[in-house]
Amino acid sequence: MRRNRKIGHAESEADDELIATVTLIQALQSEGKLAEAKREVASAQPLVAKSQNTLVRLQFEIASARLVLVSDHPESSRALLMQALKQTRAHGFVGMEYETRLSLAELDKKSGHGAEAKTALNSLAAAARRKRYGLIARKASAALR
Q1: What is the CATH number for 130?
Q2: Residue 112: which domain range?
């Protein structure tokens, strides 16, 4: 019983550290410090492997995919984002699903598929408004401009 409690505590600490790492990756990306963010992604791989928390792992995967999206090879993020989209839908993580759909639309826009991006963004904005995800609805609407 004590052993199980220690294991649970260790898993919780790893998840907490992974959540902090996701936040750091997002902050570094927003500051344009992509090389540092990539190093954080690489160094967090052991934590991801330990995590039993699907939500935390998906947050990390989406943050990692968004980092690839802003790289020199944005198309490489498509498979990562599609996998994350599949998982967010399977687990019912609506907000994360919408964030992933927004990233995919940004990728389409960046890749020269403007019509597909516009359709995806309009659909996302409407769905987000229906489910009361106002921030995502506003982000999707803003991306249309």
Answers
A1: 1.25.40
A2: 2-143
The token duo for 128 is 């987000």
pLDDT digit string, tens, across residues 34-58: 999 999 999 999 999 989 899 999 9
∠ CA 111-64-41, rounded to 5°? 140
Contacts of 117 (CB under 8 A, 6+ apart): 105, 106, 108, 109, 143
- Identify the residue whose tokens are 């790893």: 14
Q: What is the separation of C-alpha 39 from the centre of its chain, rounded to a whole number of angstroms? A: 17
pTM for this entry: 0.88
What pLDDT, in 10s, does the model give residues 75-86?
999 999 999 999
Q: How many domains does the chain have?
A: 1
The CA-based angle 116-94-142, given to 5 degrees, is 45
8, containing H or E segment: helix 2-30
Instruction: State how far the alpha carbon of 126 is from the alpha carbons of 25, 57, 89, in Å.
Output: 29, 28, 17
The conformation of residue 31, written as its DSSP 8-state character, comes to T
Residue type, 119: T
